[in-house]
Design brief:
Helix 8 runs parallel beside helix 9. The chain is globular, with a radius of gyration of 23 Å. The chain has twelve helices and 20 strands. The strands form four sheets. Strands 1, 2, 14, 15, 18 and 19 form a six-stranded mixed β-sheet that branches. By secondary structure, the protein is of the alpha+beta class. Among the domains are: about 90 residues, Roll (Pdz3 Domain); about 250 residues, 2-enoyl-CoA Hydratase, Chain A, domain 1, CATH 3.90.226.10. The two termini are about 35 Å apart.
Length: about 475
């Protein structure tokens, strides 16, 4: 099991269109393939032959086959995906947190590419792109009708080359062009600082290859500056997830050794695992356990975790594990609800995913469960204390997409889904509020930076540590899983 976790893969944010994914990288076991439906395969072959013989123009046979595989896999759920040779290379590169591109986390909305967040310090960040911006054209190509994967391919390229993005900004009701120079994106996934005497904040924006090392380094810096920490805030807001072994490591930093972090359950024996806080489950092969260099106090320091609707997958695993073990108080709003595991499987016989030369698929193989057995899928983690984004509330929470909103989403597997009749009314109110906000000057609409003294949820967390009153949300309630259309 330890080896499997060491090669587990990436959640690339875009909650939202198959981009949020925790991946287990495996070799296809050929002797476990299901019997083939010969009659249906004959129909597929017949369709292929008819298209090849009768289509108005000559067709590329390899592209037809690739598109057929892509269609089959993508029809399963929002997180299953086919990788051709180029997209396979890009997917592998993303696990390091380094790639050539513009530096945005994206999803799809109404056939357009939506900016979830510009990566801090990236070309897109410097160019002024904002959350919720819609990309309508990439160079001369209209985005409408492109798959998310195709859009990503067009935005990536060689370093120092330019790409022209046409942006529609809803809240300003305007369309404008932005020319961005591609460069190698090196995302720093861990930030932190002492907020005030005795209280510190550490933020993980994504779980990447270096997240554990950077986390340990930052924690040691904080303790060197402030040896007597009375409360630590672990900020996982808008963290889309990432590498499972990094999530296990961060959980293990705060939990007793061998404590259960997460379990998985699916159809095959390999999909049924109980993953514990053990070095073999998060360290690279033959490397030392870097968590041993953390201050001993980290195991008992009072801990608060901040989450919101953008906290997904690996970040939900961490929040759920520490919440179930009563190691941390979770504050904020209900998380995204990405609780399924995707296995990345090479289509070339005899190759592991890491060595896969040509093509692969990423398919959903199991669900995640917290240590107490709660399914994360389509439910998410419900905070112990619901706290709004601002003192005025969370007026746009109803507009934010969660796993349960995705077409063809996998259900939780735990009971009947319930529809919230008040949700549409909340959405209408949020849209009206957004229209009113769009009329204000841009400076007044800029949200406060995470970790600043104007970060309302962070300030409420500090109040919680101090035993002061916490402004609990009057509007946020647990959102039930909504019915899935058949």
């Amino acid at each position: 099991m330890g080896h499997k976790l060491k090669i587990t893969g990436w959640i690339a944010l875009g909650a939202l269109a198959g981009a949020l994914t925790t991946v287990s990288l495996q070799t296809v076991a050929r002797n476990t393939l299901a019997p083939l439906p010969l009659e249906e395969l004959q129909q597929l072959a017949a369709a292929f032959g008819l298209v090849k013989a009768n289509y108005v123009e000559p067709v590329d046979e390899k592209k037809l086959i690739a598109d057929a595989i892509a269609g089959m896999v993508s029809s399963l759920d929002p997180h299953s995906q086919y990788f051709d040779k180029k997209s396979l290379k890009e997917f592998k590169e993303s696990t390091s947190g380094r790639f050539i591109g513009v530096g945005i986390e994206i999803t799809q909305e109404d056939g357009l590419v939506k900016v979830v967040s510009p990566i801090e310090g990236s070309p897109a960040f410097r160019a002024g792109l904002k959350t919720n911006d819609l990309i309508t054209k990439i160079d001369d190509t209209v985005v409408k009708g492109l798959s998310l994967n195709d859009a990503v391919k067009r935005m990536r390229g060689e370093p120092n080359t330019k790409v022209l993005l046409t942006i529609y900004r809803k809240d300003e009701n305007r369309t404008f062009p932005v020319t961005i120079t591609r460069e190698e994106i090196k995302q720093q996934s861990v930030r932190g600082k002492v907020i005030e005497s005795g209280y510190a904040w550490i933020r993980i924006s994504q779980f990447q290859e270096r997240t554990t090392e950077d986390f340990v380094k930052k924690i040691n810096e904080i303790y060197k500056q402030e040896p007597k920490i009375k409360g630590l805030v672990l900020d996982l807001r808008n963290d889309p997830g990432g590498l499972l072994n990094a999530a296990v490591a961060i959980s293990a930093a705060f939990l007793p050794e061998n404590a259960v972090v997460v379990s998985t359950n699916g159809q095959t024996p390999d999909s049924k695992q109980v993953i514990k806080a053990m070095a073999q489950n998060y360290m690279r092969r033959d490397s030392a356990d870097i968590l041993r260099t953390l201050p001993a106090d980290i195991k008992k320091v009072p801990l608060i975790i901040l989450v919101n609707e953008g906290s997904a997958s690996a970040s939900e695993i961490v929040a759920g594990a520490l919440q179930d073990h009563k190691r941390a108080t979770v504050i904020g709003s209900q998380t995204f609800g990405k609780g399924s595991v995707q296995s990345a499987l090479c289509l070339d016989q005899g190759y592991s995913f890491n060595d896969c030369p040509n093509a692969a698929v990423k398919i959903t193989t199991s669900r995640y469960y917290t240590p107490s057995g709660r399914s994360i899928q389509a439910k998410g983690i419900v905070p112990d204390v619901m706290v709004d984004e601002t003192e005025e509330g969370s007026p746009y929470a109803a507009l934010r997409m969660r796993e349960a909103d995705l077409e063809k989403h996998l259900t939780s597997g735990q009971g009947e889904e319930k529809k919230d009749p008040a949700r549409e009314k909340a959405r209408e109110d949020a849209i009206k509020r957004l229209e009113e906000e769009s009329r204000k000057p841009v400076a007044e609409r800029r949200p406060p930076e995470f970790g600043s003294d104007k970060d309302f949820q962070l300030m409420q967390a500090i109040n919680q540590f101090k035993g002061k009153p916490v402004m609990v949300s009057k509007t946020l309630v647990e959102r039930k899983e909504e019915p899935k259309d058949n």
